[in-house]
C-alpha cells in the first residue's frame, strides 16, 4: 500500500533522480579529494623511500628530468643522469654537464652520494644495449628507473604529412618517426636492455620504474596527432608490462602530466596551431619542480596512473580503460559524470576544428 502511494507522489520520482545524481556528484568530488591528498608533499615519506637508492633518470639535462634528479639527490638518493648531451656552449659544456653540477649542489651528502652522468641517445639502439649492462655492473644493480625523456612536434597532420613525404624522399627521418623513436621506442629499448642485462647478470629487477607519458596519452586531437600516437603507444606498453611483472614485485607507474613550464613546452607554443591552442583552452603550465614532487609522491602512495593537476586527473578518470584504478568504488559511481565530461570535450574539439577549417577556406577563396 505504501509503495503504491509513492508511485503517485511526484516527490518519489524527484528523489529517484536526485539520489543517484547526488551519489555521482559526491563520488566525483571524493576522487579529487583523494587526488589532492596524493599530491601532498611529505619529506619524511620521500626520505624514507629514496635515501641510499640507486636511481636512473633519463632526459635529465632539463625540464622534469633535471627537477626529478635534484629532488632525489636532495633526499639522499644516488642519481645517475642520462641524456643525449650532444649540445655544447662556448665553454665546451653541455646542458647535461650543467645539470650534474646543479644536482650535486642539491645533494644531501655530496661527498658520499653518487651523482654521475651518461651521454646516451635513446634512439641509438646499439649503444643502449652496450651501456645499460655496464651501468648495472658498475653500480651492482639499480633500484629505481625514471624515464622522463621525450620530444614534441605540434602541427596539423595534413601539413606534417607533406613534410614527411619530402623527408622520406630525401632519406631523412620524418617527424612521425622522430616522435615514435624518441617517445615510444626509446623507452621500450631501454626497458629491454634493462631486463635482458638484469637476467644475464643475475641481478634483481628494479623495485620501481616510472614512465613519463602525458595527459595526451588519454585524449587526442588536432595538432598533437603524432605526439599522441607515441604516448598512447607508451601507455599500452606500460599497461602490459605492469601486468607481466606482477610476480616479480617490480612496481610500475605511468605519469600523465599536464602542461609543464619547460623548454620543450616553450618551443611547442612557438609552432602550435591556433586551433590546438583553442582546444586546450587556458591552462597553467606547472613548474617542473612541482611536477617532479607530484610524480614521486604519487608513486610512493602507490598510484599506478599518476597525474599532476585537476584537468589531467579528470581525463585520467574518464579514460581509465581496462587498468588498475585508484579509487574503484568512487570511480564506478562517478562514471556517468565522466561520460558527460568526455562527450562535452570531444564535441567542443570537433566544433573548434570545423570552425577553423571553414575560416581558412573562406580566406583561400578571398
UniProtKB/TrEMBL annotation:
- InterPro entries noted in UniProt: NAD(P)-bd_dom_sf, Sc_DH/Rdtase_CS, SDR_fam
Output the PROSITE patterns linked to this UniProt entry. Answer: ADH_SHORT
By its UniProt entry, which Pfam families does this protein fall under?
adh_short
Q: Does the keyword 4Fe-4S belong to this entry?
A: no
Its keywords, alphabetically, are: Membrane, NADP, Transmembrane, Transmembrane helix
Q: Name one GO molecular function term.
A: 3-dehydrosphinganine reductase activity
Q: What does the record list as GO biological process?
A: 3-keto-sphinganine metabolic process; sphingolipid biosynthetic process
Give the matching Gene3D superfamilies: NAD(P)-binding Rossmann-like Domain
Q: Can you tell me which residues the record assigns to a coiled coil?
A: none
Q: GO cellular component annotations, sorted alphabetically? A: endoplasmic reticulum membrane
The regions listed as transmembrane in this protein's record are 12-37
- Protein name (record): NAD(P)-binding protein
Amino acid at each position: 500500500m505504501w509503495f503504491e502511494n509513492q508511485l503517485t507522489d511526484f516527490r518519489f520520482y524527484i528523489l529517484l533522480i536526485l539520489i543517484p545524481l547526488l551519489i555521482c556528484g559526491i563520488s566525483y568530488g571524493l576522487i579529487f579529494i583523494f587526488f589532492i591528498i596524493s599530491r601532498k608533499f611529505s619529506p619524511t615519506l620521500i626520505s624514507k623511500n629514496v635515501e641510499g637508492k640507486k636511481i636512473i633518470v633519463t632526459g635529465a639535462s632539463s625540464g622534469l628530468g633535471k627537477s626529478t634528479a635534484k629532488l632525489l639527490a636532495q633526499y639522499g638518493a644516488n642519481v645517475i643522469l642520462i641524456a643525449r648531451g650532444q649540445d655544447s656552449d662556448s665553454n665546451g659544456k653541455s646542458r647535461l654537464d650543467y645539470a650534474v653540477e646543479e644536482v650535486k649542489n642539491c645533494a644531501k651528502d655530496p661527498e658520499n652520494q653518487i651523482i654521475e652522468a651518461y651521454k646516451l641517445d635513446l634512439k641509438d639502439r646499439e649503444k643502449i644495449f652496450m651501456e645499460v649492462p655496464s651501468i648495472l655492473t658498475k653500480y651492482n644493480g639499480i633500484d629505481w628507473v625514471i624515464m622522463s625523456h621525450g620530444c614534441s612536434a605540434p602541427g596539423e597532420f595534413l601539413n606534417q604529412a607533406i613534410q614527411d613525404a619530402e623527408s622520406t624522399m630525401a632519406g631523412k627521418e620524418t617527424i612521425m618517426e622522430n616522435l615514435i623513436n624518441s617517445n615510444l621506442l626509446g623507452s621500450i629499448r631501454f626497458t629491454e636492455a634493462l631486463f635482458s642485462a638484469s637476467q644475464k647478470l643475475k641481478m634483481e629487477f628494479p623495485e620501481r620504474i616510472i614512465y613519463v607519458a602525458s595527459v595526451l596519452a588519454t585524449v587526442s586531437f588536432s595538432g598533437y596527432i603524432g605526439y599522441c600516437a607515441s604516448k598512447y603507444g607508451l601507455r599500452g606498453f606500460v599497461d602490459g608490462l605492469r601486468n607481466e611483472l606482477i610476480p616479480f614485485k617490480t612496481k610500475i607507474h605511468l605519469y600523465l602530466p599536464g602542461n609543464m613550464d619547460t623548454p620543450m613546452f616553450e618551443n611547442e607554443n612557438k609552432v602550435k596551431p591556433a586551433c590546438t591552442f583553442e582546444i586546450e583552452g587556458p591552462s597553467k603550465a606547472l613548474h617542473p619542480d612541482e611536477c617532479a614532487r607530484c610524480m614521486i609522491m604519487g608513486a610512493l602512495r602507490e598510484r599506478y596512473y599518476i597525474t599532476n593537476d585537476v584537468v589531467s586527473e579528470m581525463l585520467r578518470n574518464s579514460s581509465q580503460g581496462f587498468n588498475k584504478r585508484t579509487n574503484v568504488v568512487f570511480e564506478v559511481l562517478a562514471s556517468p559524470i565522466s561520460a558527460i565530461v568526455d562527450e562535452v570535450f570531444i564535441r567542443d574539439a570537433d566544433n573548434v576544428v570545423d570552425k577553423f577549417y571553414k575560416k581558412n577556406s573562406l580566406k583561400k577563396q578571398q
